[in-house]
Design brief:
- The chain has helices spanning 5-28, 35-61.
- By secondary structure, it is mainly α.
- The chain has one domain.
- Helix 1 packs antiparallel against helix 2 (35-61).
- The longest helix has 27 residues, at 35-61.
- The radius of gyration is 14 Å and the shape is elongated.
């Protein structure tokens, strides 16, 4: 695991962006709303929340 705040900040931002892209690509296929689509949507929400918390921590330590 990356120990520095800047490294964690960058990794969490990239992860959140990729989950948002993935979730919206799944939502474009509206005919097949299944468990995986709902799961990725909730993971996206958690990833964006985690990125926000990491951003706050990074800004306070900067």
């Amino acid at each position: 695991m990356i120990k520095s705040d800047k490294g964690q900040f960058i990794i969490f931002i990239i992860t959140a962006i990729l989950f948002v892209i993935n979730s919206f690509l799944h939502l474009l296929n509206l005919g097949a709303v299944d468990f995986i689509t709902i799961l990725f949507y909730f993971i996206m929400v958690l990833a964006v929340f985690n990125a926000g918390m990491t951003t706050e921590k990074y800004m306070q330590n900067k």
